[in-house]
Every structure is written in C-alpha cells, then in structure tokens.
Specification:
The protein is α/β, with parallel strands linked by helices. The protein has helices spanning 2-6, 17-26, 29-46, 64-95, 102-126, 131-144, 171-195, 204-222, 253-270, 311-323, 344-360, 378-387, 389-393; strands at 166-169, 228-231, 236-241, 244-249, 279-282, 300-303. The strands form 2 sheets. Strands 3-4-5-6 form a 4-stranded mixed sheet, with helices on one face. The chain has a two-stranded antiparallel ribbon with strand order 1-2. Strand 4, helix 9 (253-270) and strand 5 form a beta-alpha-beta unit. It is elongated, with a radius of gyration of 29 Å. The N and C termini lie far apart (58 Å).
C-alpha cells in the first residue's frame, strides 16, 4: 500500500526533508487501518474463551501472551510500512533539501503502534470476528478527523496538509501528539491484559492511564494548537533579469534558472515596467504571516515552490495573474462569453481571461495563439496594453475594441 501511494512521488521536483517528515504520518493513514484490522483478528482468534488452554474460570493468560501477540503484529506491520517508505526516503536524500524533523516522525510512528494496539484491544473486548470491522472503522474515523476539523490534528497522525521547505509542524502540537499516543498505547496494552485476567482487578496506574487518555482527547478542543510555524532556515539564492530580482531558498536552487526562464517572457510581453514586480521570491523564504498577503504593496510576487509542483504550468500562470486584475472586477461572476448578445460584463471578462492565457503562453514559442489574440503581433499587443492599461485594470475593454480583430 505504501509503495503504491508513494511511487509516483519518486520523480517529483523540489522534494525536501520537511515534506518527508510530514508524509510519514500522511502515508500511514490507510496502512495503520490494515494493521489495526490484523491486530483485531489476531486478538479475536487467539484469545477467545473457547480455546482449550483458556477456560473461563482460569487465570487464562499471563501478561506476556497478549503483549507477544500485539508485538508481533505491530512489529511486522510497522516494519512493512517503513520498508514501503524507503524509496521515497532515498529520493529525498538524493536532493537533500532541508533537514528532517524528528518530532512529527516519532509522533506518527508512535501513533501507528498505538492505534494497532487499540485494534488488538477491540479484538480482546469483542471476542469475535465482529471486532475486525469495528476496529477498522474506529481507526479510520480517528485518522480522518483532521481532514474535517483542525482541532483533531493533535490526536491523529497527520496535519490537514503537508508542510514543505520553509515551514514545519508546530513543536507543541507534535509533542502533544507524541504524548497522547504514548498514553493511548500504554492504556490499550494494560486494558487488554486486564480483560484477559480472571478475576479482573483494576490497578491504580491503569486507571490513571485511561483517565489521562480521556482527558487528552478533550484538551485540544479547549486550546487550539498552532499547526505550522515559519522556518526559512537557509540562505537565499538570487538572479536578476530585466530589472526583476528572482530569489529562492537554497534548497530550491535547482529551480531558480527555470523560474527566471519561464517568468521573464511573461513580464516582457506585458511591457509596462510599473506593473512588473520588483522581486519574485520563493514562498519558502517568508518569515511571517504578513509578508505574503501584503507582497503586492512592496512589489514582491511570492512564488510557491513545493514538492511535485509543475513550473511549466504554475510559473507563467502566476506571473500573468500578477499583471492583470481579478476577473471579479468585471462583475460577471467569472462568466465569460464572446456572443454579441451576451452582457457586456461577460464579454469584458473574456478579454481578461484570454489575455492571461496569451501572456502565460509567451515562454513557449511554439504555442498556438487562439481566441481573441489569434494571429496578433506581440509588439502590437504590447503597444495596445501600454495605451489601455488603466482600462484593462478596470475591465472596460470589449472584444470589438481589439485593433487586430477584423
């Protein structure tokens, strides 16, 4: 399962250790469900009361037997999961950007073991094959809750998203998750042993562990942990072309030349130096929440470089979006049309949409021009933009006004 899920990532661009640290929890979501089902099946089959050596009136099993069952299932499943992650780890190591973050990794692996023990507890408690679907459903819900509400992130294996270079999982969140899963694993193991004893007697440490788990489930709903923090943690690598400075994190140095090559033709095709940003910066260099939203005020275009990104699509599109206004300026709710009977708002938004597409195609000389800008000379379009820049920004240009159209 792990190999299948990660195989397509082996050839991704911009892989880094921060991303891999987060993926240890993300990729465990389905394998831990399978491990839980296996643990529940083992417990249901090997601890049922009908076994000859387990008469109902006897102290049937000592502590070692259930722990040995759980250790074997957890060890094999967790080991297989780690083996499945080896190719992705090797791919990240070959690029070597950033540094691993041990707390998310330890939290995810501890969570894998704890949830497997929870599945074993379901098998001991229910004493039948019904324990398998119950355990699978319970753990699947537990691992899926962070995708529904952020407050469950501290109690599950993963963040709702995977951070990459320039950010990291919040340390308080990671430590809380690690502590929670240690408690859960301890409580599940003790409770499994208690259920197999005759007579059943609660011990003070066991009761304390169960109460601690229940309390730990409630606390994240009372105090919301921050999910990620900025961690640029490296120098920047820069280049300059035609008055625009391009800077990326040192871990993305291999992407810099391609970013310049793809963005510069878009800015050149637009022509207006006032509209072109002063800097294009890698999002991994951001150090605070205010930098990116207010980038336009300082002439900074923030470019998100992340594992698996496609620069040939994203760089030209991001550059074109910077140069032109948002389509909502036109008031047509992003609905465009060139039909003469269509409302003027829809016709005007079509001009913006196709101008963005034309600008984004400039890095690719062989790209076919279509729509409203088909066959137009690039110099003529640049001159037209310079004469009508304010009207373009206000979305006041209709298709019939384009000078190269018949």
């Amino acid at each position: 399962m792990t190999l299948t899920a990660t195989w397509g990532q082996l050839s991704w661009r911009a892989l880094d250790w921060v991303y891999l640290s987060g993926q240890v929890g993300v990729q465990a979501r389905l394998p831990v469900v399978a491990a839980t089902g296996a643990a529940a099946l083992a417990a249901a089959r090997f601890t049922r009361p009908s076994l000859v050596f387990a008469q109902p009136w006897q102290p049937r099993l000592g502590r070692d037997v259930p722990l040995r069952h759980a250790t074997v299932v957890t060890g094999w499943c967790l080991g297989a999961y780690l083996v499945g992650l080896l190719p992705l780890t090797a791919a990240v190591a070959s690029q070597g950007a950033g540094t691993p973050h041990p707390v998310p990794v330890l939290g995810a692996l501890t969570g894998f073991a704890a949830l497997t023990l929870l599945g074993y507890l379901c098998g001991v408690a229910l004493r039948g094959l019904i324990a398998v679907p119950v355990a699978i459903g319970l753990v699947f819900v537990c691992t899926s809750l962070p995708l529904v509400a952020d407050t469950w992130t501290a109690l599950s294996l993963q963040l709702p998203f995977t951070p990459s270079l320039g950010a990291r999982e919040s340390i308080p969140l990671g430590l809380y998750r690690l502590g929670f899963f240690l408690l859960l694993g301890t409580a599940a193991a003790w409770t499994s042993v208690w259920l197999l004893r005759a007579p059943r007697q609660w011990s003070a440490p066991q009761v304390t562990a169960v109460v601690a788990v229940a309390t730990a489930v409630v606390l994240p709903h009372l105090y919301a942990f921050p999910l990620v923090t900025y961690a640029p943690g490296g120098s920047e690598v820069c280049a300059e072309r035609e008055g625009v400075r391009y800077c990326v994190h040192e871990g993305h140095a291999d992407e810099l030349a391609l970013i310049v090559e793809l963005a510069a033709p878009v800015f050149a095709a637009y022509g207006s130096s006032e509209a072109v940003p002063a800097q294009v910066r890698d999002h991994s260099l951001a150090t605070g929440d205010d930098e990116v939203p207010h980038g336009a005020e300082h002439g900074v275009l923030w470019m998100r470089v992340y594992p698996g990104w496609d620069p040939y699509q994203e760089v030209p599109a991001t550059a074109a979006v910077w140069l032109l206004p948002d389509m909502f300026v036109c008031g047509s709710e992003s609905v465009g049309s060139t039909d003469e009977r269509a409302p003027s708002e829809q016709r005007r938004v079509t001009v913006l949409v196709e101008l963005k597409a034309w600008l984004a195609s400039r890095p690719f000389p062989g790209a076919a021009d279509g729509g409203l800008f088909a066959g137009a000379d690039p110099d003529e379009i640049r001159d037209w933009i310079s004469r009508n820049e304010e009207r373009i920004a206000a979305c006041e240009v209709e298709p019939e006004e384009l000078p190269w159209r018949p």
